[in-house]
Amino acid sequence: MEEKVFGYIRKHQMIQEGDCVVAGISGGADSVCLLFLLEALRERLGFSLEAVHVEHGIRGEESLSDAGFAEQLCRQRGITFHLYSCDVPKRAAKEKLSMEEAARKCRYEAFEAICAGKQQAKIAVAHNRDDQAETILWNLARGSGLRGMCGIRPVNGKVIRPLLEISREEIERYLQERGQGFCTDSTNLSDNYTRNRLRRNILPELEESVNRQSRMHIAQAGERIRRAQEYLEGLAARRAGELSEYCGEELRVLAKDFCREEEVMQEYMLRIWLDRPGAGMKDVGAVHLEEIKRLAAGQPGRRIELPGGRCVRRTGPYLAFGMEEASEERREETPLAVPGESRWGKYLIITSLEPNKNQNIPEKKYTKWLDYDTIKNTIQLRSRKSGDYFTADGGHRKLKKYFIDEKVLREDRNKVLLLAEGSHILWVVGFRISEVCKVTEHTKTILKIHIMEEEDYGR
Question: From what superkingdom does this record's organism come (predicted)?
Answer without folding.
Answer: Bacteria
